[in-house]
Amino acid sequence: MIVIGNQVLREQIQNEVRLFAEKLNAPIICSLAAKGAIPEQHYLFLTAANKYLDGVYRQPVVSDLFHDVDLLILIGYDFDEDLKPSLWGHDKDTIVINSFDIPTGDIFQPKINCLGNIKESLHYLSNFCPTKKQIFSPKHQYLKMLFDKRSAIDVKPGTTDIPKIIEIISNYLGESGILCSDVGMHKQYAGLLARTQMPNRFICSNICGSFGFGLPAALAAKLCNPEEKVLAICGDGGFHSTSQDLETAVRYNLPVIIIVLSDSAFGLIKYYQGLHSEKPVKGMTELGLVQFHLLANANGMKSAFIDNLEELPKVLEQASLLNEPFLIEIPVTYDYDLLKHIS
Ligand SMILES: Cc1ncc(C[n+]2csc(CCOP(=O)(O)OP(=O)(O)O)c2C)c(N)n1
Ligand SMILES: [Mg+2]
């Protein structure tokens, strides 16, 4: 299996990586930071991956993903991108191919560390690579179908269909639109489920994972790509860190769309408290109700409040036609018990 990290995008060597994978006939996964290195409909591409896969797909995906894998070739990979070696266990052989050394410390020891120009390493290694006859194991065949569909996820009654929101956003953005994600539960859904066909079309804060990233990232993405649709997806908690940039967006008239998923909570933290059977601490992870659509108006920005997801595609199109910054507030109820559904 080939595992792609963000260095591949930084060095713009995604085509060489794809050709290498095609020569080997090896399945491909990537970190959230490397989304778009390989178009997600590519016949060898399985999924962007991290530890939230099981929860988002509500079934034990991670163990099946790595079950039949005997060798992982990690290209431009940094374990800090949240695709940790613990996901595949420590009993599998690994080859790291990177242009600079990332100290792995006690986290994992690659069997071979192939350090130097990645393009040249791939070129050299491909002379020795046998081609696998069978592309996918039966488990990978099933997973490919699941990942390509994305919508195969059931939604627990009383919770919001977050995968549906991500699907609508992906449809709106098309192939070249840019999705910037803030940090929280919503980032895991967006990172694992958004369809990303081109490099640098999914932007999120990795390693530091600082929330408040989504809105300013979207403004920067729009400045760099004025012709592209740009959308920020944010949670209500993190959004407060940089919500003053609503005014920046208005002042510079940067036509980005900002979606705030409002669960009146630090959702991801509440999720972890649930996993550890802790009660959410009132006033710590649960927040008061904020009317984000009014906050946008207070900054001179138009907005919409949507409590029926059916309306979202139309509102996105209308907002896009306005050609000015626009905020959409969506109240959500996350499924905080995600992993408990896996037997
Ligand atoms: C600056 C900063 N402080 C704290 C955290 C830890 N943290 C990660 S996610 C999260 C909760 C995010 O809540 P929200 O923005 O509402 O998103 P949700 O999880 O509800 O989708 C927190 C506190 C962080 N990543 N960055
Ligand atoms: Mg929240």
Overview of this protein structure:
It is a single chain. With 343 residues, the protein is α/β, with parallel strands linked by helices. It has 14 helices and 12 strands. It has helices at 7-10, 14-24, 53-57, 61-67, 118-126, 138-149, 162-173, 185-193, 214-224, 236-242, 245-251, 267-275, 292-298, 312-322, and strands at 2-4, 28-30, 45-48, 71-75, 93-98, 112-115, 178-181, 202-204, 230-235, 257-262, 302-305, 326-331. It has a 6-stranded parallel sheet. A 6-stranded parallel sheet has the order 8-7-9-10-12-11, with helices on both faces. Helix 14 links the parallel strand 11 (302-305) and strand 12. Helix 2 (14-24) packs parallel to helix 5 and helix 7 (162-173) packs parallel to helix 14 (312-322). It is globular, with a radius of gyration of 20 Å. Thiamine diphosphate is lined by residues 182-186, 209-212, 235-238, 241, 261, 263, 265-269. The site of magnesium ion has 8 residues, from helix 10.
Characteristics:
343 residues; alpha/beta; 6-stranded parallel β-sheet; 35% helix; 16% strand; globular; binds thiamine diphosphate; binds magnesium ion
Mind describing the biggest β-sheet?
6 strands, parallel
Radius of gyration: 20 Å
What's the SSE pattern?
EHHEEHHEEEHHHEHEHEHHEHHEHE
Q: How far is it from the N-terminal to the C-terminal residue, by CA?
A: 27 Å
Helicity range = 25-40%
Sequence of strands across the biggest β-sheet: 3-2-1-4-5-6
Strand content: 15-25%
Whole-number average pLDDT? 93
Helices, by number, come to: 14
Rough shape? globular
Enumerate the spans where pLDDT stays under 50 for 5 or more consecutive residues.
none
Cofactors, ions, other ligands: thiamine diphosphate, magnesium ion
**Structural class based on helices, strands and sheet pairing:** alpha/beta
Number of strands: 12
